[in-house]
Structure formats: structure tokens, C-alpha cells
TrEMBL record:
Name by which UniProt lists this protein: 2-oxoglutarate ferredoxin oxidoreductase subunit beta
Iron-sulfur recorded as keyword: yes
Top EC category: oxidoreductase
Pyruvate ferredoxin oxidoreductase beta subunit C-terminal domain location: 195-256
InterPro entries: 2-oxoacid:Fd_oxidoreductase, OFOB, PFO_beta_C, THDP-binding, TPP_enzyme_TPP-bd
Lineage: Bacteria, Bacillati, Bacillota, Clostridia, Peptostreptococcales
Organism of derivation: Anaerosolibacter carboniphilus
UniProt entry keywords in alphabetical sequence: Iron, Iron-sulfur, Magnesium, Metal-binding, Oxidoreductase, Thiamine pyrophosphate
Thiamine pyrophosphate enzyme TPP-binding domain sequence ranges: 44-191
The protein's required cofactors: [4Fe-4S] cluster; thiamine diphosphate; Mg(2+)
One GO molecular-function entry: iron-sulfur cluster binding
Entry's EC annotation: 1.2.7.11, 1.2.7.3
Length: 282
């Protein structure tokens, strides 16, 4: 199956988002997901273009709102494999509230954040994930703010699958996306996806020099919440691999009674019910 729709991406040469796109396509191929059973929803930003490059259902939503759209799609038709994606500004500035509630709600879908620690599409200003001291046109004296730690936020909010990838470590990223899609619940992947045009600090080489690979740590226990927290703090969030996963039941499996039947499988011809209702008032 071909998961590319043959549209040529307009990302800058070298942008980390190319690797995320290829990794998602490779993961879909590995899992043999029929394109008509895959929905990719994106937000706004350079990363938001990804939904337009997949041979799948695509929904390029509005800024910070990919998660509400994606969760709705999954709830209406749980047989679909649903992947939401967006940038760090999309998910952790305007969309922060949706992100936190998605973590705790645990709907069975995957959220990939293409994190370049900057706003690329709007020409390079600081994002909530930019490092303290980061100099851009919007922070000419360096950012004085403390960046959000996405993995800590995810763990604290009750996420059941938390992982990080790096665009240059594509084999690992494909493996993480496969496991994230297989996870029965909400899976969150924070991908370090360098912006080669505007972020001259957090470059490919910078990440190679700083990232710890959890796959090289045989004693890393992904089901241990406290150890996951400790590992995040110990590495200052600079790692790749699956940090944490548990088997808490997903949202849909907890729905009671008839609501456990998906909307697309329900009899939506409610006219007879309406007639019955009206008869009660006659
Ligand atoms: Fe990628 Fe940055 Fe170019 Fe946007 S501006 S396409 S994030 S390299």
C-alpha cells in the first residue's frame, strides 16, 4: 500500500518534519492499515501540513484544535486508526487545555507533536517549549520564561503512553509510532523535529550531543510511573524512547450500555422515536 498521496511537501530542505511523515507512513505500512481506515488530523503550523501528504483521511483543522477533532472522529467511528499531529505551539500554547484533557481522557488514538521549540510558519518566534535564554525576534534579549516539559505534563495529567522520538533516529521513531498506535488508549509522542531555518540552537547536532536513548538502558521499566518521572527529571526531558505505558482502560471501553455502540453503527433513523415522543404530548 502507498501511504503517500504523491503531493510534494513544501517544508524547507532538511526540516525534521519530513522524517515524521516518512515514519508515520512506514508505521502504517508495518501495521498494514488500510488507508481508508486511517485518519490523520493536524493543527496549524508547518507541521500541520502533514495531513495533506498522507494517503488517508486527512483533516487540516484550526490552530490548537486537532485533538478535539481527532477525538470526535475516534468516538464516532472507533474502528478508524486516528492520528493527530501538530507543532509545539499548537499543542502547548493555544491548544494546551485540549492536550491536558486528552491525556486524562484516554481515548484510543495517537498524538504526535513535531516539536521544534519555535514557531516556524510565522517566521521564528519563541514557543512555550523554547529554552530559557532562547534568542529570537520576539525575545531579542533571550526568553526569560521556563519552558513547558511536555512529558511531565503528560504523566501528571494521567497519560497512559508517553514517548519521545528524534527525526534523525528514524528507525526508533517508526518503532515508537507502531507501538503507540497499538497501544489501547491515548498515546503521546513528543518528537524533536528540528527547524533548520529558524532554530539555529537546537540543531540536529545539538540533539545528537544531548539526547539519551532509553533503548540503551535495559533496566528502564516503562510501567513504573515514579521511575518515569525520575527519568524525565534526571535527563531534563532530553531522551528518546518509550518513557511510560500502562494498561488503564481506554475511554470507549468504559462507556455504559448502548453508548458502547459506535455512532456509525447505531440506527440514526430517529424519526420514529420523534413520532413516539410527539404522541406522548398529544
Ligand atoms: Fe520546517 Fe522550520 Fe522550514 Fe517550517 S520553517 S518547514 S519548521 S524548517
Amino acid at each position: 500500500k502507498d501511504y503517500s498521496n504523491q503531493t510534494t511537501p513544501t517544508w524547507c530542505p532538511g526540516c525534521g518534519d519530513f522524517s515524521v511523515l516518512r515514519s508515520l507512513q512506514a508505521a502504517a505500512a508495518h501495521l498494514d492499515i488500510e488507508p481508508h481506515n486511517l485518519a490523520v488530523v493536524s493543527g496549524i503550523g508547518c507541521s500541520g501540513r502533514i495531513s495533506g501528504y498522507m494517503n488517508a483521511y486527512g483533516f487540516h483543522s484550526i490552530h490548537g484544535r486537532s485533538l478535539p477533532v481527532a477525538q470526535s472522529i475516534k468516538l464516532v467511528n472507533p474502528k478508524l486508526t486516528v492520528v493527530a499531529s501538530g507543532g509545539d505551539g499548537d499543542g502547548f500554547a493555544i491548544g494546551t487545555a485540549h492536550t491536558i484533557h486528552a491525556f486524562r481522557r484516554n481515548i484510543d488514538m495517537t498524538y504526535i507533536v513535531m516539536n521544534n521549540q519555535i514557531y516556524g510558519l510565522t517566521k521564528g518566534h519563541t514557543s512555550p517549549l523554547s529554552q530559557t535564554g532562547f534568542v529570537t525576534k520576539s525575545t531579542p534579549y533571550g526568553s526569560i520564561e521556563t519552558p513547558i516539559k511536555p512529558g511531565i505534563l503528560a504523566l501528571a495529567a494521567g497519560a497512559t503512553f508517553v514517548a519521545q522520538g528524534f527525526s534523525a533516529y528514524q528507525d526508533q521513531l517508526v518503532d515508537i509510532i507502531i507501538k503507540a498506535i497499538q497501544h489501547k488508549g491515548f498515546s503521546f509522542i513528543n518528537v524533536f523535529s528540528p527547524c533548520v531555518t529558524f532554530n539555529k540552537t537546537n540543531t540536529y547536532q545539538w540533539f545528537r550531543d544531548h539526547l539519551v536513548n532509553l533503548d540503551d538502558e535495559p533496566n528502564h521499566a516503562i510501567g513504573d510511573f515514579q521511575k518515569a518521572m525520575n527519568k524525565y527529571i534526571e535527563t531534563d526531558g532530553l531522551f528518546t524512547g518509550i518513557l511510560y505505558q500502562n494498561t488503564n482502560p481506554d475511554y470507549y471501553s468504559k462507556l455504559p450500555g448502548e453508548r458502547g455502540t459506535s455512532v456509525v453503527e447505531q440506527d440514526l433513523d430517529i424519526r420514529h422515536k420523534f413520532d413516539e415522543l410527539m404522541e406522548d404530548f398529544m
